[in-house]
Structures
1.
Amino acid sequence: MGERFDAAVVGAGAAGMMTAAVAAQRGLRVVLIDHAERLAEKIRISGGGRCNFTNLGASPTQFLSRNPDFCRSALRAYGPGDFLDLLRAHRVSWHEKHRGQLFCDDSSESIIQVLRRECEAGGVRWRMPCAVRAVAREADGFRLDTDSGPIRAARLVLATGGMAIPQLGATDFSLRIARQFGLRIVEPRPALVPLTFDAEQWRPYAALAGVSLEVRLSHEAAAPGGGGKRSRRPMRAEFLEDLLFTHRGLSGPGILQISSHWRPGDPIRVDLSPGRDMAEALVAAKAGGRQTVAAALAQVWPRRLAEAWLGTADAAGEGAAASGGVDADELAGLGGLRLADAPDRRLRALGARIHGWTLWPTGTAGYKKAEVMSGGVDTDELDQRSLESRRCPGLHVIGEAVDVTGWLGGYNFQWAWSSGVACGRALAAG
């Protein structure tokens, strides 16, 4: 017959452990199942080993979804302050690093141990490592065929996350089970991921690998509409963050942010000198200037970038990888000219190019390099207060497996905590 539980939670990551702890501490008999040998590896490696576990500014504004309001209820009921209260209770210290991003003073292991102790306080039963081979619906709940034998539960929680970082054991388990029970899926894709370019088109920039600078990145595309269609209303995303050149394309916080908005065929726009009018600055520097245009840019950018960006045909506006609506003839050979000899119109064209460098990525670095998966179970399928399926009562989907994707900077962990608590409370409420 197998053991019987009030709730079976599949996935012992951030969202899964939070759900199990909350439900068990409210009196439910809960089993937590995970196929991994080591607990919560994604938490362990996050934030360079210190876990960017939330963001003080977390609100629905920083989440992408076909229904941007879906996450509002869970975030309101359990926000960053609530999670900080939990850490205080366990005497875990933290610090703010950048724009509301909170990290452990010690290590990510502190977060894992908090969640483990919370589960133990409620008497959660562990099945780990233990793979779930099949799931079936029964009259009084669900039957799970696992490596440790059959398990029956009145309610089932899918908390295995998405497909990002498969080398740590990530799979599409939650999506497969959701599909099995008829839930619609928003097409999953890598998010918070480096962008790549055609190798030949990117060749002039490959030598810049390792160069980093602060830029303003923007993307504009049609916004998702109802019924799985995309409306024609423009949706603009913009981030002021660091950009990093790589051998295959671009990375860094700014690119990871914009990648969640990017779709194949879309361009991205890069302002290489945000907050400064480069056209006016270059024209003003002409008076008495003996330096070249490239040398002048090297005072603002890393020298390698100034020389390579001005010295390639693509930087002059040719090719599909990069352009900017500027006449290539105005920029050709400009880098070697002395500022004093450069016509104002050419410097202004260069300034326009600097503030509006337009690039056409050809792909992403994929799930192996992605921090999260975007897309997932359509929010229309779930109750926003309980994360329970509307068409399959008793089935809940939480965390990354849901079509709710946060910005870089601790937002996705906050969604894990918020959705996990919402689900755990709903399980206990019956």
Note: The mean pLDDT is 92.
2.
Amino acid sequence: MPIEFAEVPRPDDVPRRTSRPRYGRLDAFGDWLAARQGRSEPHAPQRPRVVVFAADHGVASRGVSARSPEFTRQAVRELRTGGTPLGLLAKRAGAGIRVVDVAVDDDEHSESRVRRGSGSVDREDALTPEETEAAVDLGKRIADAEVDEGADLLVPAELGTGASTPAATLVAALTGTEPVAVVGRGSGIDDNTWMRKAAAVRDALRRAKPVVTEPLELVGTAGGADLAALAGFLAQAAVRRTPVLLDGLSVCAAALLAEELAPGARSWWTAAHRSTEPAHVLALEHLDLEPLLDLGVAEGSGTGAVMVLPLVAMAATVHHTL
């Protein structure tokens, strides 16, 4: 059965402030949050949740990342025990974490796994049509589960070696941008690795162009299971009237897809920060989202958004003083 999303409700974006703004972006964010909470005044989120979609990417074997393919499964284990920078920052910010193994290349059994790793997008499809729909549906169901369990602010994230290559490809395809303009340094790659990455994005983009108007075919061709699941998650969060704090490149690439799947979904999202990845900047511009901060964070993986979580509570607090 094809994946379908209910109509996205529109938040009430009537400005809440009656006095002159004094706190810049915090004032505007307070208005944004109040509208999505359906309140006259914003309340600090009581149950923010970080949801990490973990997956391996076949294109990592092309030497496009500074990390080894084994990094993903090691990081998943550490994150589940409270380790990694994201785990530590989330704990400090009072946010819970859910880790979803959607396509980790690991011998350990996982009920949520769609497949072990995605295909190398420069030479083959990332997913079959059935796997694409399964991944999108998984993201949709995870969003429902989080909202049903009381989440009032969602922070989606990705985890996986090589993820920025398919993400950059999707951004290039959906914004009509040339490969060299979307390829960044990702995990801290050197010049030779950057050239391999640019070539992989070029080849993947060539394969993606014939299906650029079909979001499910596009993510199946040139994306990956994590990006498909993120798209489903973001679209359904909007359907469920739940505000979302977007993180880095992969999440924003998935957001471009989610807006295609559920038009109007972007009205329920805001950007936490602007990363150093050029494709991330392009995605934010295409979504017409102004980030709260520019922290100079090179990667996504949820860390930038979690750093911003204390500002969310502050925005609600200062809004009551205006």
Note: The chain is about 45% helix and 10% strand.
3.
Amino acid sequence: MAWLRIDWGLYIAALGLSLIGAVLVWSGTHADVGPALAVRHLINTGIGVTMAVLLLRVDVRWIRATAPWLYLTGLLGLVVVLTPLGVTINGSRSWIHLPGGFSLQPAELSKIALCVGLAMILAEGRDTTRPPTWREVLTAWGLAGVPIVLILLQPDLGTALVLGFLTVGVVAASGAARRWTALAVGGAALAVTAAIRIPLLDAYQLDRLLAFVDPSRDPQGIGYQTQQARLAIGSGGWSGAGVGQGPQTQGGFIPFQHTDFVFSIAGEELGLFGCLGIIGLLLFVVLRALWVALRTDDPFARLVAVGVAGWLLFQTVENIGMNVGLMPVTGLPLPFLSYGGSSMFACWLAVGLVAACQRPHDRSAPRRRRSVPVRRPAALDTRR
């Protein structure tokens, strides 16, 4: 039965992170809005778990067959937000308002679309013993370049970086020559350097990007935010102040603490031990995806799992890094923990993809024929 073959470790780790996130969201918002956001976080978690379990029931061959449509649907969502239907929040035109007071961020779901799209391009139609040709690699980069450009137009630098890192990982895992990975990394470094030096960014955008190094560049915005987050995390000590007891958290000194800076709540109220537990669970999910990639014989499933692992790893490192002042503030949520429906749904769909990719041959393997005993003809009776 499929239900007995669920990867319980993967699902339990992701569910544990989501529930910890609900506690942190409650702690950071209950003084202002009561338990409302924490309850919505739990509702989003329930919807995400349901989607992940339903996806587990889907044959991986069906996912592979619908990959072009999933990719095109992701692009359509990114185009729609740039039309009058899109809504600007915090300086980024990344949202679509839905009936019933809900909203959707297509950039989050584009991560799923790109995972399956890249796997389709790099795994289909070639011998698995042959590395991708330069045409196939360029096609994959072109496939990634379209959503990256659309996301930069919003602008959403954080998600664009996630898609770039995801693409590098999938192309490298496909067996492409190392020079392609080196060229991609070098090109990204040159693009970031050019954006800073020329400059391609406005002065206020550049100040926000570099404020993690020098908070005085944006003392009323990102500089203040990063200083307060570091102060909260540093004051947590080994075991933290306790849930609902952190002075910085309960005082409301950190803007957007329940979304981008939810890790600062963990640092202040759960302490170093709590933070290490959260990081351990996040790394378990990433390593589990890589374990699936190593064990599967299906090239499509392997590249999908690598894409999910690269996406979650980069997003985790970037979010925690910007909380502790080691990375620029890009607005990326912490997977499973930050408040936000679109992010939660995307993360749980990623869990469902990884789980579905673990056993692609269970359903596709031909059935064994039952052995039927051969009845030999009875010996002729020569007696009269």
Note: The CA atoms of residues 31 and 251 lie 9 Å apart.
4.
Amino acid sequence: MKNKSIYVEIPIQADIDDVWEFTQNPELHEQWDLRFSSITYLLKVKEKYSQSFLYETKIGLGLKVAGWGKSNGIHNKNDGTRTSSLHFGTDQKVSPISEGKGYWQYVPTKKGLTFLTQYDYKVRYGMLGGLLDRFFRPVMGWATALSFDVLKRWVEKGEVPRTQYLRFFGSYVITLLFIFVWLYQGLIPKLVAKHPEEVAMLSSLTAIEGTAAIKAVSIIGILEILFALVWLLYRNKMRLFVLQIIVFPMLTISALLADPAIATHPFNPVTFNMSLWVISIIGFYMSKDLPTASSCIRKRERG
């Protein structure tokens, strides 16, 4: 079964010449496009010839994929639509992509333009490559869509891509941190170890003692695990950050009321909760108006 080509479309409120410059200038292109770390145009032999270039994509752990590309032509329609076609590929075996073709299109609208792309590629390694592409292709589509939204925000609002990506990935690292914290705190001290200090603090704050206190700690542990799942699944992270900004000082005060001496312990709830409180504030401001792949249309309308 042949995989569908990748299609991404986004409206941009800007002059078509400006978007053309942001996308056709390699020094600007490599800043917003998550799929490329660097793009270098090669010298044309003649002006009419297609534009060849080399690209690199860093994939982590010091590894990178280097490839070639060729802009095969630019076509202008009578209505002002511009189209730039592309042929690209790489000989490096670490890349599942061997070569591909696609195009960028700039369609004028009343409020600016619609910027869109459609491309497809061949994979190496036969059936194994085809199987891996079922996971790789959606990632490529997501990266393309996220990059398009970063471009849109850069052109419309002036926020440079580096800052946008810093906020985007920083926000997700903080989200992963809180998933781990709530999952660990609910599972290990409360459900697995049923730590005596957890039980003692609950007993000091309530009238619950003995077996009932142990069961209550287990229930709290389950609730914390569920909250970790909320962090994983709930999209509006800003609301979760606001909730934690309110809750962490309350948890700190509760711990001190239950056992004032706990403030003298190493890595105690005072320093732990207040650190998470500060991180929640940072996360709240970083997660404002993040770029998102969901702002793009991913299927071409049939007409």
Note: The chain has a mean pLDDT of 91.
